[in-house]
Design goal:
heterodimer; A: 133 residues; mainly alpha; 6 helices; 70% helix; B: 89 residues; Helix Hairpins; 85% helix; 0% strand; transmembrane (chain B); transport (chain B); transmembrane helix (chain B)
Chain lengths: 133, 89
């Protein structure tokens, strides 16, 4: 039983390390920032999640103490990774305003809310479904 | 067996931190550097957790949690500074 547990913990730790490494390789290798965002936000977060799951299993199964801190850390990381990625992408779009021409049309009356601000709320129901131009 | 897995994890995450440092030094734009620091904080959290497993103590989880909060808040503050010219309006 302990052997199975050790194999499981080791597999989680190794998987976490591989995912963290893959995310950072993506950060170095990918061509521009909007693609580079994918590596750290997905792979690296998953890697830390693997290490945290291995740690939780280790302390519960082998040390015999139930620790909730890992759950807290992983929930916090999984919640905040998309938020920080969103902020970085938004700041990048504002830094390079020329990228605005490359954005696909929203298909609605108002453009991307990052650039055009919040649309009017009055008769928003009809404006929301009206096709663009 | 866990010792070998921990060694592998240390090596992998340390290489990841070095790659992040390369991006931090090289990064063509400002946001690349912010992203590199954000990723480096996450990798350091992984290192702290692996160290906690090796030392068989749960003391380091507070440090990991503090690192997570500090990294998130610093990223958001820097992005808001770029976006709005001010952190708290």
């Amino acid at each position: 039983m302990t052997f199975v547990l050790e194999v499981l913990i080791s597999a989680l730790i190794v998987l976490g390390g591989i995912f963290a490494l893959v995310g950072s390789v993506g950060l170095v290798k990918l061509p521009d920032l909007l693609t580079r965002l994918h590596g750290p936000t997905k792979a690296t977060t998953l890697g830390v999640g693997g290490a945290l799951a291995g740690s939780m299993l280790f302390f519960f199964g082998i040390e015999g103490t139930l620790s909730i801190h890992e759950v807290l850390i992983s929930v916090f990381l999984f919640l905040t990774a998309p938020i920080s990625a969103h902020f970085i992408a938004k700041a990048h779009l504002h830094e390079h305003v020329a990228l605005r021409a490359d954005l696909p049309p929203t298909g609605r009356e108002h453009g991307w809310s990052t650039f055009d601000g919040v649309p009017e709320s009055s008769d928003g129901e009809q404006a929301e479904h009206a096709p663009r131009g | 067996m866990i010792e070998h897995a921990l060694t592998f994890g240390y090596v992998a995450v340390s290489i990841a931190v070095l790659l992040n440092l390369w991006r931090l030094l090289r990064g063509p734009s400002l946001m690349d550097r912010v992203l590199a620091v954000d990723t480096m904080v996450i990798n350091v959290i992984a290192l702290i957790i692996l160290f906690g497993i090796q030392q068989r103590t749960t003391v380091f989880f507070e440090a990991a949690l503090l690192f997570a909060m500090f990294g998130f808040i610093s990223t958001v503050a820097y992005c808001r500074f770029i976006l709005r010219g001010d952190v708290i309006e």
